Amino acid sequence: MANTKCCWTCPEDWDQWSRWLAAGLHARNRWRLPVLLTGILFALGRRTVTTWLRAAGVSDDYQDYYYFLAPLGRKTKIVASRLLVLLLRTLPLPDRLLAVIDDTPTKRYGPMVEGTDIHRNPTPGPADQKYLYGHIWVTLSLAVRHPRFGSLASPLLAMLYVRRKTMSTIPKWRGWTFATKLVLAARLVEWIAPIVKKAGKTLWIVVDGGYVKAPFLRRVLRTGVTVVGRLRRDAALRDLPRKLRRGQRRGRGRPPTYGKNRISLAKRAAHLRGWETAECTVYGQTVTKVYKTFLATYRPVGGVIRVVIVLEDHDWFPFFSTDPDATAVEIIEAFADRATIEQDFHDVKEVWGTGQQQVRNIWTNVAVYHLNLWIHTLVELWSWCRSQGELCDRRQSPWDDAARRPSHADRRKALQRNIMQRELSTLAAVERLPRKILRLAKRLMALAV
Predict the structure, then answer these.
(1) Which among 59, 135, 211, 432 is least buried, having the fewest CB atoms inside 10 angstroms?
(2) Among positive and negative, which fits the CA dihedral 342, 346, 352, 353?
(3) Hey, which residues does 96 pair with through a beta bridge?
(4) What are phi and psi of 273, to 5 degrees?
(5) Are 360 and 66 in contact (CB under 8 A)?
(6) In this predicted model, what pLDDT tens digit does every residue of 350-365 receive, in sequence order?
(7) What are phi and psi of 420, to 5 degrees?
(8) CA-CA distance, 162 to 445, in Å (whole number)?
(9) Residue 411, exposed/middle/buried by CB under 10 A (0-12, 13-18, 19+)?
(10) Lowest mean pLDDT across 42-46, 164-168, 174-178
(11) What is the pLDDT of residues 17-60, one digit of tens each?
C-alpha cells in the first residue's frame, strides 16, 4: 500500500496555510499539495521531483504525485489567488500595494522538454554564455517593506513564454496558445488588479524598460492601476497640449491629447537648471537623490505622464509614472523596489533549485516552477514576525557580519530547525531519551540544516 502521509509534522500556522492553498484544488487530490511543499522544504542535493518525494517520505506513491502535477499546472491562478488573499489577510500591508513584473530564464536539458528554446542569457558569467537552452517565465511578485529587514518580494504567479516557432513542438491536446511577453505581463496585471481592488487597496505596477510599450501599457491602464517604469533615452515625449485662453473658441474636432513640441530627455538632463534634491529610501538605505521632474505626454500611455530624471555620479536615468500626481520620491523608491524581484529569481534558483526538476509535460513544468515560487513566499510569510535571532545564528561564523539581515536561505533553515525541534521534543516527551542521545540529535540537526 502506498504511503499517503508526510513523514514531517509542520507548525500549525504552516499547516493551515498549505491547506488553505490546496482548498482550491479537486478534493480527491488536494491533500497532496501540503505533502509536496514539505518535501520541497527538506529536499537536498539536486532538486528533482523524486528528491521532493524522497524528502517527504512518499516515494512509494511517486506515480500519483507525478500525475498530480499536470492538473496543478492548469490551476496555478486559483492557488496563486488564494496565496495573495492569504498575504492580504496576514501581513500588515499599506493601502497602496506594489507589484513587480519581470522575466527570467531557467536552464533545461533534453530536446523532449516541451516549450524549451534558445534564449538570451541575462547572466553570462565567466564563461560568457550569451544564450541558454530552457524556459522563459514572466513573473509577478508582490513587493513589501519589512519593518526590520527592508524591501522583500513574494512571488505569486508566472506565465511561460513560448516562442511562436516553438509552438509546433507542443502537442495540440495540451491546449497551449501563443502569446508575447507583453501580453503575458498584461494578463498578470489583469489577474491581480481585481483582487487588490476588492481588498480596498490601490495597486502600482513596476516594470523595466522592456515592458514600456503600447501593447502592455494600454491594456494594463484599463484595469485602473498605476504603472511605474524606466523610459528609453530617446523616448518620443511631447509637451502638454496648449490650453485655450479665456473667451477663445475651440476649433472643430476633439481637443488635442498631445503637445506639438518634442521633448528631448538628453537636453533636459544636460541643462544645469531645474535640479532638486530629496531624501529617498532605496535598497535599504536613506540617500539624497538629485532629480528633475516635469509633465509630458507619451503616446504609448495615451496621455500625460510624470517624468523623473535622476542624476547619479556616473550617468542619468529617466523614469516615469502614469499618475501625474505622483511625487518624484514615490517614483524613485518604487522603481528601486523593482530589484526585489531580481533577488527572488536568485533565491528560487539557488535555494530552491528552480529548473532542476526533470519533467517534460509543459503543464508539469508550469506546476513545478510555481511550487518553487509558492514555497518561497510561504517561508517569507512564516518568518515575517520572527526576530533575527530566531532566523539566523552567526555564532559559528565569527567572520560574518552579525548585523546582516537574514537571507532567504537562513529563513528556510530556521523553518527546518523549527520542525526538527518539534519532532525531537515530541519524541522526548513520549520516551525518556538519554542526554547523550539528545545532544547528538541536536548536533546532527545543526549539520543537516
Answers:
(1) 432
(2) positive
(3) 202
(4) -100, 160
(5) no
(6) 999 998 988 999 999 9
(7) -65, -40
(8) 43
(9) buried
(10) 42-46
(11) 999 999 989 989 899 999 999 999 998 888 899 999 998 888 88
